[in-house]
Design brief:
Elements (H helix, E strand, L loop, with lengths): L11 E4 L5 E4 L1 H20 L11 E2 L3 H12 L6 H12 L17 H13 L7 H12 L8 H9 L31 H16 L43 H17 L6 H15 L10 H13 L7 H12 L1 E4 L2 E4 L5 H14 L7 H11 L33 H12 L7 E4 L13 E4 L16 H15 L36 H13 L7 H13 L14 H14 L7 H12 L12 H4 L11 H13 L6 H13 L13 E4 L3 E5 L2 H21 L7
Antiparallel strand pairs: 1-2, 3-9, 4-5, 6-7, 8-9
Helix pairs in contact: 1-23, 2-3, 2-4, 2-10, 4-5, 7-9, 7-10, 10-11, 12-13, 12-14, 12-23, 14-15, 14-16, 16-17, 16-18, 18-19, 18-21, 21-22, 21-23
Length: about 700
């Protein structure tokens, strides 16, 4: 039997168009086909009746801890919900005694303080062995005084410190007009949805005084009263990329002290107006949404903010938000764990792409149901993004089940690529792209699913709901391009770096700048729709990507871990718009991917590479990251390379009998250096895509075909 990572000696040989000799192992190709069919069948079995897919989205124990702290504020720390969440927290304690942001990671002080406190609130004795280990580890790491700003608000909410120790978040921020440099729409959308309800809380300063036995004074190196005003965890914020003559951090801390002085003197003439505006802002965005922003942190603070504004805890609005939290709970023998949100649109779009790659027909009823489900979730109303783009017509998709105020570019691009793979082959559409004056652009094209192009001389052919939605989505995405040529997640030109220096910016995500991975995904989508390389939007995006390439050939990954994610996506984006494999950027990137392949044949990268870029491309091998590297190399023209063959073999040999892969590691990114994710379908649809694309690349040489599902 051949050792893992090595290929047997029985090969068929052929010469490629370049004249190079390649070898293909027919037996191994049969095993690739079998692996594809297993995964394809497993994924089809997971489809919901209405056509969508949605897997667990796993974060760290901050989610369970903050849920327990909210329940404690509501006087429910003895509830079954709180106790079961604490049971799960205890199972995640690391050998170092604390809690980490990802499996195998170092102690994270805020996560550890909140986990310890959640355990204590739910009856775990401080003198028990796990609690003693945790307390010792927390004190050695600097104590509770070094937690981040959001954790300070929990400390204040439950009476451990005064609100004066928390950063000032005045609700008057909502009164600043959009032309003001520091209005709320200069913040990232997720920060905005957190800070608006948090500003209500800061104004009212609600407190539940806990019994001393439930407090955590023992976690402070110095008494809590001596806790410094300036946050020790500010070091997690990325340094400013551009030079500024204004010392923004000192300016914002001076402003913070000034606001707190005015607060003590009760100088707040616009407070009632600001609070009313904040309440209206929150309530408006709860409509047709899985909670404010459809993500966990804003929902927590919304519960507190609504109660501050006089909404009864047992009233319909507060209860609706508590119900949204309960929907995020998953229960098993370890206890209750919470997801940060749901990922159905993302999972469904990628599943459709993977299944189409794996040979499932576009007219298969299961694919048709998925397409209809996606079309039903198109956003047709204006959201926060329209503040920057008031003249742009709505069109796009969000990440969750319901979140109409916050469509995002990444999901929209992925959905458009999924839809493009499902449009009948004889459909051709003229994308009437417009220039800045609103006139039809000279580089409008006609697109057919087979990639045919004609001069833009016919009228738009709208043959289906899918084509209409694709046209709207394409226009929306093009309208969301930032001035530097790239695309961000939720907003355009959301890159005011000074915001990263405000005291409550230590979650490392105050802005939403354009990134190489999302920009490249848009390029992949544009190429899929037939938008040529000569189009002005493509040219501007490629300039942005060029500037972001690392000297070794890789690209940073903002939304996936990390350089493997970014590099794979950029290669696909550049190839999609017609950049040849001979391009130096692609050769350098492919060389880097090959250089970080591990001896076993797979690829892996730890979230630690965000803290230390020297670790890029290094970490435990995972199925999802191996798939990314393989797809990058295949797109770069290296499908027949030894590196790709070894990677494919690793995927085939590590596949489980049911067609899945075991992947306990976190390969998704929420906030770099602060919050990471494990998408439970990443280990499924990305390997399926990689294996299917590998099989397609060599199918004409072997004659092997996939059986129909």
């Amino acid at each position: 039997m051949d050792a893992p990572g090595h290929w047997p000696s029985r090969f068929s040989t052929f010469r490629s168009e370049s004249g190079a000799e390649h070898r293909v192992d027919p037996l191994s190709m049969q095993s690739v086909r079998t692996a594809i069919e297993r995964t394809r069948d497993w994924l089809l079995q997971q489809q919901h009746e209405d056509g969508h897919w949605c897997a667990e989205l796993e974060g760290d124990t901050i989610l369970e801890s903050e849920y327990v702290l909210l329940l404690a504020y509501l006087g429910q720390e003895d509830s079954e919900h709180a106790r079961r969440a604490a049971d799960y927290i205890l199972t995640q304690q690391q050998p170092h005694g604390g809690w980490s942001l990802y499996p195998g990671g170092p102690l994270e002080i805020s996560a550890s303080v909140k986990a310890y406190w959640a355990l204590k609130l739910t009856g775990h004795a401080p003198d028990s062995e796990p609690m003693r280990r945790a307390r010792r580890a927390i004190l050695e790491a600097g104590g509770a005084e070094t937690v981040n700003s959001f954790t300070r608000f929990y400390l204040a909410l439950l009476g451990q410190i005064d609100y004066a120790k928390c950063p000032a978040v005045p609700p008057e921020l909502l009164l600043l007009p959009s032309w003001c440099p520091f209005n709320i729409y200069e913040m990232s959308s997720w920060s905005r949805t957190i800070l608006v309800p948090l500003s209500v809380m800061w104004a009212y300063r609600p407190v539940r005084r806990l019994p001393e036995s439930l407090g955590i004074r023992e976690l402070f190196v110095e008494p809590p009263e001596r806790m410094p005003l300036e946050l020790a965890s500010q070091a997690v914020v990325d340094p400013l990329r551009r030079r500024h003559w204004i010392p923004w951090r000192r300016v914002f801390y001076a402003l913070d002290r000034g606001l707190k002085t005015l607060e003590r003197l009760r100088v707040r003439p616009l407070r009632s107006i600001a609070l009313r505006r904040a309440e209206e802002w929150i309530v408006q965005r709860l409509e047709d949404s899985d909670g404010l922003g459809a993500i966990f942190p804003p929902i927590i603070w919304t519960v507190v903010a609504l109660q501050c504004r006089g909404y009864a805890v047992d009233g319909p609005l507060v209860q609706s938000q508590l119900q949204e939290l309960r929907k995020l709970v998953l229960r098993d023998e370890r206890g209750d764990r919470l997801q940060p949100c749901f990922s159905p649109v993302w999972d469904t779009a990628i599943s459709v792409i993977a299944l189409r790659d794996a040979g499932v027909a576009a007219d298969d009823p299961r694919i048709e149901r998925a397409v209809r489900w996606l079309l039903d979730r198109e956003v047709r109303v204006r959201g926060d993004w329209s503040v920057r783009r008031p003249d742009l017509e709505p069109g796009g998709w969000f990440f969750e089940y319901r979140n109409k105020f916050y469509p995002d570019v990444d999901d929209t691009a992925m959905v458009l690529m999924a839809l493009a793979r499902c449009v009948p082959a004889d459909v051709q559409v003229e994308w009437l792209l417009e220039d800045e004056s609103g006139r039809p652009a000279a580089d409008a094209v006609v697109w057919g699913r087979a990639g045919r192009r004609r001069p833009a001389e016919k009228h738009v052919v709208e043959t289906s709901d899918a084509v209409s939605a694709m046209r709207r989505g394409l226009r929306w995405v093009l309208g969301m391009q930032s001035r530097n040529g790239g695309w961000a997640a939720f907003d355009a030109d959301n890159d005011r770096e000074a915001f990263t220096q405000v005291p409550f910016a230590d979650h490392n995500a105050m802005i939403d700048p354009a990134t190489p991975d999302i920009t490249a995904r848009v390029l992949e989508m544009l190429g899929c729709l037939g938008i040529p390389r000569t189009h002005s939007a493509v040219r501007r995006a490629m300039s942005m990507i060029d500037a972001a390439q690392e000297p070794d050939g890789g690209w940073y990954g903002r939304w996936g871990v990390n350089y493997l994610y970014g590099t794979w996506q950029v290669i696909l984006g550049l190839r999609s718009v017609g950049v040849p494999i001979s391009d130096p950027r692609l050769r350098l990137a492919a060389n880097w991917l090959e250089s970080v392949q591990q001896e076993c044949g797979g690829w892996g990268e730890s979230p630690a590479s965000y803290d230390d870029p020297n670790l890029r491309g290094r970490g435990p091998c995972t199925a999802s990251q191996t798939a990314w590297a393989l797809m990058g190399l295949i797109a770069a023209g290296r499908a027949h390379s030894e590196a790709v063959r070894r990677g494919v073999r690793w995927l085939v040999e590590t596949q489980l009998p049911d067609g899945t892969w075991d992947e306990p590691h976190f390969t998704g990114t929420g906030f770099p250096r602060v919050f990471y994710l494990r998408y439970h379908y990443y280990r499924i649809y990305f390997p399926l895509m990689a294996l299917a694309r590998y099989a397609h690349a060599i199918r004409s040489r072997t004659g092997l075909q996939l059986e129909k599902a």
